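Lecture notes, continued. The same structure-token format from the folding unit now serves as the input rather than the output. Read the line below as a description of shape only.
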């Protein structure tokens, strides 16, 4: 599948809008309703849509949410997903709080070797402030268990906010000195109505400057196929990598190879644009495989060449929040 010169081979599947955390930059600050169970795509339905998307050229899938591990039956779903032959690469983004050594072993037995963990602080008190949950130790244990069990790469997603965790930029980066982790600083994206103020956003230039003034000039690293949008660097002689994901300061839309499937069964060609197309209702109304394929290709034809997030926010257009799309 091609969208405006961009080959699309990556499907990001949100299996749930529910989450056991309440990260201040992610969940809306005003009360919000979760999606009723009957409106959430069943595992069977997700697998069918995935198989059809694979026939159109999808070879990589990332499972996300909400928090994927809060959904019941996730391991047997993953097992069935791993049995789709044309899928070459399955990875998961998680907050890690519900993972332990036994569950991570199960993932490796299925052939899942790539995990992204979200971790914004190394301080348990601050962790509780940012996520609304007192689970720092669980997450830290899960990350190190994954490391010991050979999960590689381990990517650590960090959102830095001024006045919240910007004092930890250097300490979080220092993890890459001793471990082969890829610490990725993601610029805060203003979506929905989160509790974060515009002034708390810190862009990559400032973060990189802070890192270089402590650790010396970062060395740029060549991109590989699994890098996604991260620009990668390394502190000299470090074991790990520092990545920057820059949706705000330098959008990477021209390289975007993604299509998203939300837990409500809608396809979204872009995270930061509200256009979406429901594929679940046609599937439930017995649409043929060809009709479903047509919905996928039509959706991709609407993939914008540039997300224009800041313009939309400036005009007061709210972007659906992350848990409802799948980050
Ligand atoms: N619950 C899982 C987790 O936290 O890893 C998966 C879903 S979460 C929405 C995926 C990623 O989106 C996380 O790494 C999180 O830090 C990031 N994220 C959420 N809201 C964001 C925002 N407003 N701006 C930038 N990144 C955000
Ligand atoms: Fe949940 Fe992940 Fe959003 Fe945090 S970032 S609230 S863990 S979905």
């Amino acid at each position: 599948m091609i969208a405006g010169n961009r080959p699309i081979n990556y499907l990001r599947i949100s299996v749930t809008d529910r989450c056991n955390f309440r990260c201040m930059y992610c969940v809306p600050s005003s009360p919000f309703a979760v999606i009723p169970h009957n409106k959430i795509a069943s595992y069977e339905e997700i697998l069918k849509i995935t198989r059809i998307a694979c026939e159109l050229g999808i070879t990589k899938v990332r499972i996300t949410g909400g928090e994927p591990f809060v959904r019941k039956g996730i391991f047997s779903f993953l097992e069935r997903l791993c049995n789709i032959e044309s899928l070459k690469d399955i990875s998961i983004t998680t907050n890690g709080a519900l993972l332990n050594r036994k569950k991570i072993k199960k993932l490796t037995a299925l052939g899942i070797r790539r995990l992204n963990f979200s971790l914004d602080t190394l301080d348990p008190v601050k962790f509780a402030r940012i996520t609304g949950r007192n689970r720092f130790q669980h997450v830290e244990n899960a990350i190190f268990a994954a490391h010991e069990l050979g999960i590689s790469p381990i990517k650590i997603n960090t959102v830095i906010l001024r006045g919240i965790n910007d004092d930890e930029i250097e300490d979080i980066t220092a993890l890459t000195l001793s471990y082969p982790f890829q610490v990725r600083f993601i610029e805060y994206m203003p979506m929905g109505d989160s509790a974060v103020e515009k002034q708390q956003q810190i862009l990559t230039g400032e973060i990189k400057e802070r890192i270089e003034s402590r650790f010396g000039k970062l060395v740029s690293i060549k991109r590989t196929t699994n890098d996604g949008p991260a620009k990668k660097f390394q502190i000299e002689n470090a074991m790990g990598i520092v990545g920057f994901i820059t949706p705000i300061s330098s959008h990477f839309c021209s390289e975007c190879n993604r299509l998203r499937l939300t837990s409500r069964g809608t396809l979204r060609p872009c995270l930061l644009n509200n256009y979406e197309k429901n594929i679940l209702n046609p599937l439930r109304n017995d649409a043929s495989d060809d009709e479903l394929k047509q919905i996928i290709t039509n959706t991709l034809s609407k993939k914008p060449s540039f997300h224009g997030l800041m313009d939309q926010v400036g005009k007061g257009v709210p972007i659906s929040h992350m848990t409802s799309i799948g980050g």
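Point for the exam: Residues 19, 25-26, 64-65, 67, 93-95, 118, 157, 159, 186, 188-189, 191, 322, 327 surround S-adenosylmethionine (ligand 1) (CB under 6 Å).
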